[in-house]
Write a structure and sequence with these properties.
216 residues, mainly alpha, membrane, transmembrane helix
């Protein structure tokens, strides 16, 4: 008559140490949203945001202003957000929460600045005054392109990346951790053994600052 063993079958280490599926998905989503959003903001901020005409010598000349001329806030905050996106993986616990909040605030601030710039005419008025030589000159026929709104959309992606980091960041891995995925400390490196009968081992021990006579 046979006997049934009650010893549990050990599970593969990879299965026990795997990061939760939700954590992997949120991590991939945050990276994609943050990187894509920052790229969109940086590219669209260099496009023409506003156009118009300025009166010069009885005629009119076209004037235009790009996003950087209208406001440099979205570009600066996109760079801050991109740095915060990668800094999230270098910190843990409270530090990760603070960096994730900075990421979200960068996206929100860049979106607000872009929307305010969509109706701004100060940059074109300054350009009209420069061209005409009249400090009181104002631009005529002011129109705005779609690029401020594209910038705002990219900034919202950065905001979403920050919200993902705030909500799911505690499940993400961190760089340079002292512990393995199982939570146990890594085993220290075993010191090399010294053979007192081998002169080369004695010289190596002395070079390491060890006393080869101990334990002999």
């Amino acid at each position: 008559m046979g006997y049934v063993s009650a010893v549990p079958v050990p599970q593969p280490r990879a299965a026990r140490a795997a990061v939760p599926t939700g954590g992997r998905r949120s991590l991939a989503a945050a990276l994609l949203l943050g990187a894509l959003g920052a790229t969109v903001v940086l590219l669209s901020a260099g496009q023409i945001w506003a156009e118009g005409t300025a009166s010069v010598g009885g005629g009119s000349v076209p004037v235009e202003a790009d996003g950087g001329t209208v406001t440099g806030v979205p570009t600066a905050l996109a760079i801050v957000g991109l740095a915060a996106l990668f800094a999230v993986f270098a910190v843990r616990r409270t530090g990760r929460t603070l960096v994730a909040a900075l990421l979200a605030l960068s996206g929100a601030g860049a979106a607000l600045a872009a929307l305010l710039g969509a109706s701004d005419s100060a940059a074109l008025d300054a350009e009209a005054a420069r061209i005409s030589g009249d400090t009181a000159a104002a631009v005529a026929g002011l129109t705005h392109t779609v690029w401020p709104y594209v910038t705002a959309a990219g900034a919202l992606l950065i905001l979403l990346a920050g919200l993902f980091a705030l909500r799911f960041g505690k499940n993400w891995p961190a760089m340079g951790g002292r512990y393995e995925r199982s939570g146990t400390p890594r085993a220290g490196r075993k010191a090399p053994t010294t053979d007192p009968d081998r002169p080369e081992d004695l010289w190596k021990a002395l070079d390491r600052g060890e006393d080869p006579t101990q334990g002999a």
